[in-house]
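Researcher: Please predict.
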Amino acid sequence: MKENYQKSKATLLAELSSSETGLSSAQANKNQEKCGKNELIEEKSKSIFMIFLEQFKDFLVIILIAAAVVSAILGDVESTVVIIAVITLNAILGTVQTVKAAKSLNSLKKLSAPSAKVLRDGNTVIIPSEQVTIGDIVLLEAGDYICADGRIIENASLKVNESALTGESLNVEKSDETFDHDLPLADRINMVYSGSFVTYGRGKFLVTDIGMKTEVGKIAGLINSAKERKTPLQANLDSFGKKLSIGILIICALVFGLNVFRGEDIMNSFLFAVALAVAAIPEALSSIVTIVLSFGTQKMSKENAIIRKLHAVEGLGSVSVICSDKTGTLTQNKMTVKKFYVDNEIIDCENGNFDINHQKRLLLSSILCNDAVCKDGKEIGDPTETALVNFGLKYNFNFKYIREKYPRITEIPFDSDRKLMSTVHNVNGVLTMITKGAADILLDRMNLTDPEKSAISEITAQLSAQGLRLLAFAYKEIESADISVKDESGLTFMGIIAMMDPPREESKAAVAECISAGIKPIMITGDHKVTAAAIAKEIGILKDYSEAAEGSEIDNLTDEQLKEYVPTKSVYARVSPEHKIRIVKAWQERGNIVAMTGDGVNDAPALKQADIGVAMGITGTEVSKDAASMVLADDNFATIVKAVNNGRNIYANIKRSIQFLLSGNTAGILVVLFASIFALPVPFAAVHLLFINLLTDSLPAIALGLEPHTNDVMKEKPRPINESILTKSFILSVLSEGLIISAASAACFLFGLQTSPAVGSTMAFASICLSRLIHGFNCKSDNPVLFTKKFFNNKFIFGAFGIGVLLLALVLFVPAVSTIFKAEPLNIVQIIMIAATSIGTLILIQLIKFIKKSVKK
């Protein structure tokens, strides 16, 4: 079945029961009833209250809620209040982050034109864009936003900016011709699309699609259907929470059964088991992770990476594939003259000698046959024309002076049918017509021999293969300034100027760093394959031209075939939104964490589908920013690489925090089990455990999350998507460190029991508090840090230690506070015992790390 761009105007008008004078009011009403309004439909979103409730689905949170209920029943109000406060704070933070994320379609709607000029009953009327319907004839002129998709039926030098939709940065010259072959979206120049806008000329189009059937509507559908995935850390924490919860429940059940078997009171045994659960669960873990990620976002914003979705900070550290747009991200988004061909020689722009007549004449002509200006630092005009003006300025050829010296007498403006522009000037007393245009068009209009034409054709093919955009220049001396298109023949060839949007200076180094870090960079662009491949090869993304493909090449591949296809390609050109989302999904199906960059509406579905969507802050549309996890304030690929570095460091720091919390909580569990097995009194009151977990533990855990970053992480490969936090080495470290800290606390407990159970409990509490505060220094690295610079490189860990010791001193030595936290007065010997055993844990753990490091060597 033929697409609309492949049908003639007459055929389409007949199919849609329309005419070149437009619809009648009756027809329009009938079509509106049948087709609906010209608007985008949004999926029903969850209420804020429902989002808030969903934050309580986590298994760890459910256990904490149960512990709070039991504590309330047993009259332990303090524990109940603290637990409820913590889980409510986590739920509020989660709700705020989720609500911020769901704005994409609202911004997409803003792209719709507020009104449109249509022909109704043979008259031109202005109507709201939502009332435009199938079969309407819409009138366009420069400055208009296009309200629907349609086939051009009348064209007068119409140029349209479709960059948001197709990714092509240059304005598209439109045509009303019919095509009989398949074309990608960006090459369907006889169509206009909703959300784009007219930059030049005028025209009319027949509305063929409205609302959700338009290309923008299809993108809205893709945004609705694209599912955001959990980051590796979120998935890890979920898995970790379930495993930890099951383990805690089993241990608590065993302890409860053991105590009942030994004849203990059932209610006391149950209270003991609840205390153990509270000791085991790192209540503040979610809050600490959120705080560490928040600090990470602040650091990254200073480096031009603005994080919209908090967990994306850590997700960046797992990225193994970066799919990047070309224009403005890897390149400068500024057309620049690179080479020119004159007098049978290709010359690099740096080697020009404009004292030579032929070179000087070409440069002067490129400035004269040109409408662009540079005013107050702003470039006004077509990107290729501004490139020519800037090239002249670089060599002190001021466009104002030149245009005043050789003023334009008359002109034949550029139009999309001729693909030429001509201007007439008095050059040293001779009327001269300067013509510029596509090289293949001008070749047939110049006085050249066949060998000369063949030589120029070879040069244009050679330059085009390098991804350069070409403009040819010719001239003709004339007798009268009264010229027409018929005069654009019999021209004399002057030369060709070759331009491109050059790579950013830092792109090549950033791509190299990606590859060394085990990350595959991929270019996905709406530009032509030759141009994209040339840029990709220059910056190191492409090794061989066989790795470049066009979007149309994947149309006939199944999802399974695409999975096998994507590792063989590094560049995709002329892609549609559907292509982008399929490429991202294919990499994800292969087990990769994918980052996707983009700036246009056409990028939004893939940005949402990707694990990390990265939008452009300068050139990006609001739609792309809303769909993304991160926004680049400088539109620079190198900033993504910095963000990956930060993400990897942040994950390493979060893992240190988790190791610190788990090893400390393991110590608490082992002390409680020790007391239970040997029929000793309960070593900790519930309020002791909450003090440890929420106050003395939280501060060092946050401080470990702020450990200084290192570039060493970029020498590692991305961690596997399914790698658990609980690796074998991680579990062994947690258990061994927890055992050492528990031994110190148990020793103090037994020492204090000689005086009384209350003193024993106070000594156990004080010892485990101080040991865990000191343990923060152990968790800075897997290697020993004592007596090294690394021991002193984090001021936050010293601050956390100082505040923790001060809080512990208040509990131990201020009677009013001691009463609240059930602490008994201690003598000097008992205090020395606590300090000695706590410092002993540091020395012993550092010694074990030293032995491990020596064995590895």
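Model: Residues 101-111 have pLDDT under 50 and may be disordered.
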